[in-house]
Give the backbone structure.
Amino acid sequence: MKTVKLFRRGLMVLLFSVAMLHIGCNTKTIEDRYIYDIQTKEIYQSASQKQTLKTTTQFVSIAYSDLNNSSITNDQLNKLDIAYQSLGDKKIIEDMIIKTFLQQANSLIPSNTVMRSDISSFVQNTYLRFYNRKPNEFEAWKVKDMIEKNADITPKMVYYTLMTSDEYRYY
Amino acid sequence: MKRKQFIKNAALTAAGSMVLPYILPSGRLFARSGSRIANHVVVCVFGGGVRNLESVGKAEGNLMRNMLNGTESISPDIAPGVTVLPTLTGTTLQSQGTLFQKFQYASGPTGHYNAHAALMTGVYSDQSIQLKQPPPFPTIFEYYRKHNSPTNNALNAWWVSNSLGPYPFLNYSSYDGYGAAYGANMIQPFSFFSQYASLGNPVSFTAAEKTKCDMMRDFANGQFKIPTQAASSGMVNSPADAELLQLFLNDMMALLPTVQDPWGVGSSMTGDMKNIYFGTKILERFKPELTVINMTDIDIAHFDYTKYVNAIGLADYALYKLWNTIQTTSGLANDTVLIVVPEHGRNQLPNTVVDAYGRKALDHNNDTMSREIFCLMAGAGIKQGQVISAVQGETIDIVPTVANILGFDTDISSGLLSGRILTEAYT
């Protein structure tokens, strides 16, 4: 009888642990290429925490998700994977893929008016969206300053810039 | 110190201070200006595995009428299954060059990848295929780019592959001191354009917008230190060259609607032909000093002998189109050596697959005949009309020969290459 009680208690603890683990996993897990939660969350304290090059599939699917808040279709992913393999200079194909994504109608890009109405918030959200971290003070000031001083900079240009930067290639 | 000694020392110091800044990282005093046979080389891997019996042996007639002399008719039993495209104008490549009739793929498995790797690294290898790993020995592209300063930008070195899988990884090796920094531009044109173009148009920025983007990216990159232990992201072009390459790719995409039959050969336009067609566009645009391009359709021989015979003829047609492009492109004409060589042959004995004409198909499993190939060299500085019928030359001789033609063979460390220069083909 005592053994059965102990077994039941053990089982409860195990189930509780599994449940907690499941809840804990409800975040962006780049390593496993799953995105459980499409809301942007800060997962890095600084850029230096990013040490690993994204794989082709990771790069393409994350870029698509970051822009569209939805997952890329298998068909599109396969096509882009083949195109990616077909060109030696990966920076060029990455650039072309990002440019294609940015042009697609379903890309979620704020208007220029929205960006300029609150540049600080735009910079903060953009860093969180693409770099999964907040900008440090210098970055926040500098990017805001560049946007303020250059009236022709659009949100699409800022997105393109961050998505084709070195940091975006790593996690 | 005596006055004379002082003047001498001062003169030596001054001379040293003038010379030292010009010593290159490679240790050379000046960039190599070594004598060249020609300023451009195009290596065409005529392939998918071709037996000498059907190619230079003409066992089924002269299937390669643009390359080889002779009008031997095609074997009547398979003739209905063979498309004979019109012979292109001009004399045969054989008449314009040197033909090694008994070239050898002397060692290593007679597999397509191994043989490609041997041809492009100058080293026979029996390593198993590593799908996503570069070869262990430097490729001809790396030798070229490392030892040809200052004309060593990646737009001068191209690997135009007809296949994906392990082939894209032949543009640079994992060899210490070489690698991605000296890699070639690689493209598998048909996959690239067909897959990429289906996704729609990319956004385009004006020059002014691009400048602003570059400014912001420079700032962002300045804040991020690329981890030293991270995997290499591969070869990269300089920003200026990347611009030129993107422009070229966009132009090519505009050509896509016509690429199904740019040569007016109808349904005969094969994957090999399309690969060569894109290769000619690269030659016309960039006039690279070193290009390797391959064909693979001939490998249909595993399943259909008559289609194999047919594919040899179509590859011959594509090859001559390549030659015509070279000879009609300013900057390449009369200054290019074309080297044509299959990666390996095929077995003497057939397999059991019988085609519509009752002929049996052919594999390639390391027998003697699967090691017998030919090599044709034509162009600037190459003897015309020479046929070498003795067993002479082998696959690993291609890299040292290309290095010699482009004038950097003596810069390659001894021990890396065991092949020889095919000087018997030179004038």
Remarks:
- Residues 305-328 of chain B form the longest helix (24 residues).
- Chain B is about 30% helix and 10% strand.
